[in-house]
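Reopening this one. Same input as before:
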Amino acid sequence: MTELKSTADAGQRRAKPDRQPIHQILVPFPVAYFAAAFVADLAYWRTAEVTWERFSIWLIAGGLVMAALVALVAVIDLFRGQRPAWVRALAYASAAVLSIVNVLVHSRDGYTAVVPTGLILSGLTLALLLSTISPRWTLTNRRRLGAKA
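Same output, byte for byte:
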C-alpha cells in the first residue's frame, strides 16, 4: 500500500508543470500592432490616402500601450524567479523607443509624416523585434536564479 502511495506521489510531482512566463502570452500583440503599422505605412506610401496614415498612428500607439503592458508583466515575471534575457529585453526596449519617436514623426501633417522617415522607423522597429524575439516569444530565460546549468 505504501509502495503504491509513493509511486502516485512521484507521478503527481512529475505532473506539476514548470511556471511559464506570463508575459509570453502578451509579447506577440505589440509585434502584430507594429507589423500592421508598417503595412499601413506602405499602403500610405503607395496611395497617399490619409486614412492609412491615421491607421498607422493608432496602430503604433496601440503597440506602445501593449509594449508597456508587456514590460510591466515581464517585471512581475522577474519577481517570480525568471532570469532576464538581456539581449532580447534591450532590443524590445529599443523597439519601444523607436516607436515613441515614430508616433511623434507620424503626428506631423502631410505626406512627410510617413514618407520617408515614418516608413523607415516602422520598418526598423519591426526588423528589430523580429530579429531578436525568441521562438517562444519570451523576454526572460526559463532557468531560475541560483539554479545550476
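So the earlier flakiness isn't reproducible anymore. For the record, DSSP finds six helices and two strands in the chain.
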